[in-house]
Amino acid sequence: MSEPTCTIKRLDESVINKIAAGEIIIQPANALKEMLENSIDARATMIEILVKDGGLKLLQITDNGHGISKIDLPLLCERFATSKLSKFEDLESIATYGFRGEALASISHISRLSVITKQPNSKLAYKAYYMNGQLCSSNFKSSNTNVEPKPIAGKDGTQIIVEDLFYNIPSRLRGLKSKSDEFAKILDIVGRYAIHCDNVGFSCKKYGDPLQQVNTRPQMPIKERIRVVYGSAIANELLEIDGISNDELGLVKVSGVMTNANYNNKKKIQPIIFINHRLVTCEPLKRAINAVFLYFLPKGSHSFYYLSLEIKPENLDVNVHPTKREVRFLNEDEIIDTIVSEIHTKLSSVDTSRKFKTQSVITKRRNSDEELEEHQLPKTLQPSLKKYRQENKMVRVDASQSKLSSFMQQQPSQNYHDVMRKEFEYYSSLIIEDDTINTEQDIPEENEKEEAEGELPVESNSILESPSKLEMKIETNHSRKQVQVNLDSIALLKNDLTLIIDKPLTNIFNNAVYVGIVDPWKRLCCFQYDVKLFLCDYAAMLLEFYYQIGLHEFCNFGEIEFDEPIKLIDILQPLYDKNEDLIPMEKVIDAIFHMKDMFKEYFQIVIDDDKQLTTLPMLLVGVEPDFNKLPYLIYRLGTKINYGDEKDCLRGVLRQIALFYLPEPTNDEIKNNTFEKQLESILFPEIKRQFLAPKNLLRDVIQIADLPGLYRVFERC
User: Fold this and answer.
1) What is the DSSP secondary-structure string of 543-602?
2) CATH code of the region 226-350
């Protein structure tokens, strides 16, 4: 009789690690959560996330934390290696997110993982590659020789790059949802941490997408963080929860926000619950709070709330779930009752009246100073579902309804002073607290005197139109070598830009079809989106567009070269001939000349040692600035720029260049035809390709017709 064979065998270590990794990292969002928590533990104040194909092809997280020491890198992805725990008893007072040393180890077993890190006191950054928890070569192949981290140039902090997630577990790949669904889960995780971590800024975007899907700043108020993540509908109806504590129960503090009785949504939004700064799901607490809202909301409606509970660490068990989604704490029922009671009191105290939104018919264009409430896109601009053609509504029979002619009322021609004042007021409300940094004499006051005296617009007296002053030839050069820009101020300006973007309006511009200029004096143009026709103030649009080009092409402008240099004194003289109350010309020229090296390096505004202008920046090939405005550009560069602050200085100069490129209304048909061709063939295609529409541009865009009935509208007009 043969001996029985052993059927129980030890699993290979690689199999064990893959099984363990599969329990912890079940989708890309889990991997991101673990890396996010590591970055927060590293005391980062800014975390940037880049995602490709839902995180399966690329999941990159960059922070500015304290980094990782070179000597710690060999143990970084080894299981049960951690700097946050030394003995089991430490769990009773754990205050960090990570403590088991399994996250990066698990990720390294199911992906190709690389790390770039630098500590503040280190002269170099180091890059390391990991496979199966161990250091490996850059081609992600095992090596018998010792592999050392590679020294490279880098900035303070850590960057973790996860590529080809689940490449060696095809069953897990097949079980995942679509790439868009996985990206939505990632956004959900980032949004929740962005709301909770007020001392950390978060940004998240798809690979190759210019728009940030989530973008928050450190120390941003919680209401604004919720507005960024979930929208204004929730942010406008929030109640604060604060001051809940009970020492006897071990409850240190409860804080958060919730929507009031005026907000209800048919779509359920998962609540955000943090316990000791750890994102968890606490089903007993959720059920209790939802039961309270049943008394205040219509049937089938849902609320939104965010809670942060701080419980004594010794009363909390965080080691009950592989992904740390669940926790256990003492006096659970009593603590939940305390929180629910306070929420019920809050809702009862404000439930005295209900607000209901109504919509009125807009029969005329908004005034220029009238702002849309909460900067929200009107329903007429929202991309909508397909509407069926209603034959009975093809003809306009109500005289109160808007006609195209209502937007075509004649207005007096404006010279540059009026335009300049209007545009700077517009942008001061956008993102610039004080665009005119110096409070000395401003040019627009000159315009009032000119109008009183009945003189011609200044542009007719421009130095560039006066043969007695100067004749010149202009040459362009756009073949300069590209320069990499690493200025923090430029990065901050780009970040400021993302915070004011209106995504629905940007989508409209990116998919619009240009129709033509409607009124050159009011600077109105028409474009089509879907089945809708829109009227737009192209001056406001181009001013923002030119600023964005200047910001993204910073230090890499083309050149407009003059055949003969122009003396700054000759450029400014026409202004001083008309107004003697301006800032002394010598002071203006000295201020510009003092910064000539900066102008040359950053903006391609070249001024030689004889105080002569030789070169100007070219923003787009085929588009020239309005040279009639050159005196105003030079004057404002010398008087309206805060050279003491780098960010304000660069922003101010870029705004002035944008104004310089903005065309002015004119009776010259040749100039008008030339500009219209530029707008159609050069400017509008570029706007479709890269323009990011700010929220304040909503006031300058209005829908005028639906295309199915457009022929009737034009017939009646």
Assistant:
1) HHHHHHHHHHTTT--EEEEEEEEEEHHHHHHHHHHH-SSSPPHHHHHHHHHHTHHHIIII
2) 3.30.230.10
Tens digits of residue pLDDT in 439-458: 233 333 333 333 333 333 33
> What phi, psi does 79 have (nearest 5°)?
-65, 140
> Closest Cα to residue 589, out of 576, 603, 601, 604?
576
- Region of 715 (left: φ > 0; alpha: ψ -120 to 50; beta: rest) is alpha
Count of C-beta atoms within a 10 Å radius of residue 425: 13
Query: Is 0.70 surpassed by the pTM of this model?
Result: no
| Cβ–Cβ under 8 Å, residues 60 and 77 | no
What is the DSSP pairing of strand 150-152 with strand 157-163?
unpaired
Going from N- to C-terminal start, the domains of the chain cover 13-219, 226-350, 450-705
Q: List pLDDT tens digits, range 347-395.
A: 887 755 555 544 444 444 444 444 434 344 444 444 444 444 443 444 4
What DSSP state is assigned to residue 709?
G
CATH homologous superfamily of 13-219 equals: Histidine kinase-like ATPase, C-terminal domain (3.30.565.10)
CA 274 to chain CA centroid, nearest Å: 26
CA distances from 564 to 346, 468, 692 (A): 74, 15, 38
Q: Select from 284, 229, 283 the least CA-distant residue to 257.
A: 229
